Automatic annotation (TrEMBL), chain C:
<comment type="similarity">
    <text>Belongs to the complex I subunit 3 family.</text>
</comment>
<keyword id="KW-1003">Cell membrane</keyword>
<keyword id="KW-0812">Transmembrane</keyword>
<keyword id="KW-1278">Translocase</keyword>
<dbReference type="GO" id="GO:0030964">
    <property type="term" value="C:NADH dehydrogenase complex"/>
</dbReference>
<feature type="transmembrane region" description="Helical">
    <location>
        <begin position="89"/>
        <end position="110"/>
    </location>
</feature>
<keyword id="KW-0830">Ubiquinone</keyword>
<feature type="transmembrane region" description="Helical">
    <location>
        <begin position="6"/>
        <end position="29"/>
    </location>
</feature>
<dbReference type="InterPro" id="IPR038430">
    <property type="entry name" value="NDAH_ubi_oxred_su3_sf"/>
</dbReference>
<keyword id="KW-0813">Transport</keyword>
<keyword id="KW-0472">Membrane</keyword>
<feature type="transmembrane region" description="Helical">
    <location>
        <begin position="60"/>
        <end position="83"/>
    </location>
</feature>
<keyword id="KW-0520">NAD</keyword>
<protein>
    <recommendedName>
        <fullName>NADH-quinone oxidoreductase subunit A</fullName>
        <ecNumber>7.1.1.-</ecNumber>
    </recommendedName>
</protein>
<keyword id="KW-1133">Transmembrane helix</keyword>
<dbReference type="GO" id="GO:0008137">
    <property type="term" value="F:NADH dehydrogenase (ubiquinone) activity"/>
</dbReference>
<dbReference type="GO" id="GO:0005886">
    <property type="term" value="C:plasma membrane"/>
</dbReference>
Length: 174, 406, 118
């Protein structure tokens, strides 16, 4: 049990616990804050995989943008400060069964994969995969088309979001 | 002689050598060495704030044609110490209904986010906390983490004015993060690496502020807006929203927000000096590392001086003016800048460095001039369309036409 | 690379512990005399009127949304910028094309009034 495994276990436990608290917190603002902790846990797991770029991007985009967006949208609803009582849904037994089945299927598929039992290799000290990522993103044999399609997707998301939000604003003020 | 040339590096080497000689397993030596380094850096940064507070108060005083603190000690240098002692002994007044966890975590997180920025900044050739290969993006990401502390403060205070102030502050911070991140792309393009030490070493021949002054300008303005200082400090202005997110804080918790703001201003000046002004680069800095540290401190203090000058002289922005500046001026300018610099850089790839720098400089100045002209055009268009004199003119002409007796 | 992150992890812990310790020490040194009037919520010196929350405008949400889109765009551009010095001209044009598509989206947002602060 070396240090890396301890760090991974801790990060995984923190993420799972926070995720459980997100869905069972009584006040929505608390749920949003537990979500932030879950996302930080995922960032630590990225670090154990030695992809520092994605760890930093996780913090920058998820915690710095998406969590704040979620908190703003939580604040937009009126009932955020109230305690909604018990969070138990009526059909929770069926939902738990489906979730357990799904988890078993995913773990089964993973166990059949050969990478599941190989140890992680630490990259050499001067390996900078960011340069390779950059070159792969724009090379025609690499991911050039998905790169451009990503920007189209972003513009589509922007237009969609503005259509919804600005319409509602005209409803409020018009 | 070795000690004089590089005191920090010498001490670090001696210390790690002594630790290794103690016979502990290698990983524990590593951890203890890193822990000591982190403790020294963090404590040094927090103690340095005392000097920063004195420097700023003296300078603001001089700008406003008065002395600033000069009673406590020669030139008032013990004034911040006295203030710190006072604030240590003030009572923590927690408002009723405050969420204990969020309310107490907010000042701690605010200071921690600023301290964490110091871990990747290179202080000289040999002294750097850690040379992370995504250093620049790490700096921006940790700044985003600091925004969470303001939301925690505003929401945890159980006060609707704190909440409003916190949301306006966070809206300002996230808006200005867009030109910050976009203009940070330019030094990355020029240096070819995201690591902060790599960016400093790429500025050996020419500082990036010469090659990309427009990017430096956008980065500087966005950084000042990110730390919430004048002229962007409407969220903590005493006359509006009564100090915003820290209404309900007292004692050292308030002091921690205060310390975080001052330290953030200095850290952001240091980041600007590192990324655009060449960091520890200077004549003789590569051979004599301590000279590099001196250069970095000089450059940082020049930038910090400009920050304080902004605070002392410029009037405060209204929030819609601030948002207009960000979304309608800085963001389009930074988008156009990246595209222009990318194309120009691609076209001048084969030319020697001198001509490349001249080409970049010309493109930047061109874009700045175009932005200036566009801003003047839109300003004149605005004043032409809504003349405030028209209704007044009507009143005057009608009153003289019909006389006073009607 | 993991050594770097170990340092950052240790530094983060130190950076969290320091202000926490200082606040704790000051908590011991300071007087504690809770009083219902002192602890009441601040509202310019008068009693609070209305409930303790306000509904925020939708403009905050629209700004956060536009910020998110541009944040993801900038993050996708960072690997391209790192590899910039080694890229041939057509790869640079690809990056500029990426930005141009987003400029179109930005202009749409501007015209639709999503960037106004009411």
């Amino acid at each position: 049990m070396n240090g890396l495994q301890v760090v991974f276990l801790l990060a995984a436990l923190v993420s799972l616990f926070s995720a459980a608290m997100v869905v069972s917190a009584r006040r929505m603002m608390h749920a949003a804050l537990w979500l932030v902790l879950t996302l930080m846990g995922v960032a630590v797991i990225f670090v154990t995989l030695q992809s520092s770029f994605f760890a930093v991007v996780q913090v920058l985009v998820y915690v710095g943008a998406i969590a704040i967006l979620i908190i703003f949208s939580v604040m937009l609803t009126r009932r955020v400060m109230e305690d909604h009582g018990d969070q138990i849904l009526p059909g929770w037994r069926a939902a738990g069964l489906v979730a357990g089945l799904l988890f078993a299927i995913i773990v089964g598929f993973l166990a059949l994969w050969q990478g599941f039992t190989t140890m992680l290799v630490e990259l050499p000290a001067d390996a900078d995969n960011l340069l390779d990522l950059g070159q792969a993103l724009v090379s025609p044999q690499g991911y050039a088309l998905p790169f451009e399609l990503a920007s189209v997707l972003l513009v589509a998301a922007l237009i969609g979001a503005i259509t919804i939000a600005v319409d509602r604003k005209e409803d409020q003020h018009g | 002689m070795d000690f004089l040339r590089d005191p920090f590096g010498f001490v670090i080497q001696e210390y790690t050598g002594w630790l290794g000689g103690l016979g502990l397993p290698a990983v524990w030596v590593d951890i203890i060495a890193k822990l000591t380094g982190a403790l020294v850096l963090a404590t040094g940064a927090m103690l340095f704030v005392v000097f920063l507070i004195w420097y700023e108060r003296k300078l603001i005083g001089r700008i406003q044609d008065r002395f600033g603190p000069n009673r406590v000690g020669p030139w008032g240098i013990f004034q911040p110490v006295a203030d710190m002692l006072k604030i240590f002994t003030k009572e923590y007044i927690t408002p009723i209904g405050a969420d204990k966890f969020a309310y107490n975590l907010a000042p701690i997180l605010a200071v921690a986010a600023v301290l964490l920025l110091w871990s990747v900044l290179p202080l000289s050739v040999t002294v750097v906390g850690t040379d992370l290969n995504v250093g620049l993006l790490f700096l921006v990401a940790v700044g985003g983490l600091g925004e969470m502390s303001y939301i925690l403060a505003g929401w945890g205070s159980n006060n609707k004015y704190a909440l409003l102030g916190a949301f306006r502050l966070v809206a300002q911070l996230i808006s200005y993060e867009v030109p910050l991140v976009l203009s940070a792309l330019v030094p990355v393009m020029l240096a070819g690496t995201l690591s902060v030490n790599g960016i400093v070493q790429a500025q050996e021949s020419v500082w990036f502020i010469v090659a990309a002054p427009a990017a430096a300008l956008i980065f500087f303005i966005a950084s000042i807006a990110e730390i919430g200082r004048s002229p962007f400090d409407l969220i903590e202005a005493e006359s509006e929203l009564v100090a915003g997110y820290n209404i309900e804080y007292s004692g050292l918790k308030f002091g921690m927000f205060f310390v975080a703001e001052f330290l953030h201003a200095f850290t952001v000046s240091m980041i600007f000096a590192t990324v655009f002004l060449g960091g520890w680069q200077g004549p003789g800095a590569a051979e004599i590392p301590v000279l590099g540290f001196v250069y970095l401190m000089l450059k940082t203090f020049v930038v910090y001086f400009v920050t304080i000058l902004f605070r002392g002289t410029l009037p405060r922005f209204r929030i819609d003016q601030m948002m207009n500046l960000n979304w309608k001026v800085l963001t389009p300018l930074s988008l156009a800048l990246i595209m222009a610099m990318a194309i120009v850089g691609g076209l001048t790839r084969e030319l020697p460095v001198f001509w490349q720098v001249i080409a970049f400089l010309l493109v930047n100045l061109l874009l700045l001039g175009a932005t200036d002209q566009l801003m003047r055009l839109s300003q004149s268009r605005k004043t032409k369309s809504n003349l405030p004199m028209q209704p007044l003119r009507k009143v005057l002409t009608t009153s003289t036409k019909h006389g006073a007796g009607e | 690379m993991l050594g770097n992150w170990l340092y950052i992890g240790i530094f983060a812990l130190v950076a969290l512990m320091m202000p926490a310790l200082t606040i704790f020490i000051a908590g011991i040194l300071s007087p504690k005399r809770p009083d219902p009037i002192k602890n009441s919520t601040y509202e310019c010196g008068v009693e609070t009127v209305g409930p303790n929350w306000t509904q925020i405008k939708i403009q905050y949400y629209v700004f956060a949304l536009v910020f998110l889109i541009f944040d993801v765009e900038a993050v996708l551009l960072f690997p391209w910028a790192v590899a910039y010095q080694l890229l041939p001209l057509y790869a640079i044009i690809e990056g500029v094309l990426f930005l141009l598509i987003l400029v179109v989206g930005f202009l749409y947002a501007w015209r639709k009034g999503a960037l106004e602060w009411f």
